Q: What sequence folds into this?
């Protein structure tokens, strides 16, 4: 945020796109689960117990299509699939880390 | 992110709550418009032209209820109302700033 914006100056459309992308239901949690390294589908599912497999699968496809997540097939047998963040996805770490800090500071006592 | 989490370790519920809160449709843009100082309703509306007044009003009430935004009445005449971030809202600045940087780096060329 370089300097003060004039009152009512339009919000950057790229920012708006980013916050809607990351804020889409469950997307933030999925990205966060992958921050520490590649996971198998079942491991992402275990990290977010409230999320159904069907919806997780849908979100994963969206994240692949947007270039944030990569699907890797590890030759077998047994053939295995795992998911990892692309460089684009990994570079969300500072933003999501700041949001985690904020959440610990402000949400733990307000509930 | 202190150290690597075990594979499939549950995503922090406070993080999940934060990302769903900030990522709720239009909420990120509204918060961002207020980062540089208090604005009148019409100025927030001007900063986010695609957002209807009805929905902006709804979101503002939600943000007030969550303690992120404060409504100030400035005695008149003419009586004026303006909106500003609470300390809780202001402390989202690092997270939203990082997201803005990410958006500039990754979304401008991928569209």
A:
């Amino acid at each position: 945020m370089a300097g003060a914006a004039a009152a009512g100056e339009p919000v950057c459309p790229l920012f708006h796109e980013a916050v809607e992308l990351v804020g889409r239901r469950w997307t933030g949690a999925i990205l966060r689960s992958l921050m520490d390294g590649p996971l198998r589908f079942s491991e992402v599912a275990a990290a977010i117990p409230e999320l159904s497999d069907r919806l997780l699968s849908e979100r994963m496809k969206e994240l692949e299509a947007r270039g944030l997540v990569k699907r890797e097939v590890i030759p077998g047998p047994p053939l295995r699939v795992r998911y990892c963040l692309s460089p684009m996805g990994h570079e969300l770490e500072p933003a999501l880390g700041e949001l985690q800090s904020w959440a610990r500071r402000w949400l733990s006592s307000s509930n």
User: Anything to note?
Assistant: Residues 93-106 of chain B form the longest helix (14 residues). The domain at 37-88 of chain B is CATH 1.10.10.10 (Arc Repressor Mutant, subunit A). The longest strand of chain B covers residues 69-74. Chain B has six helices and two strands.
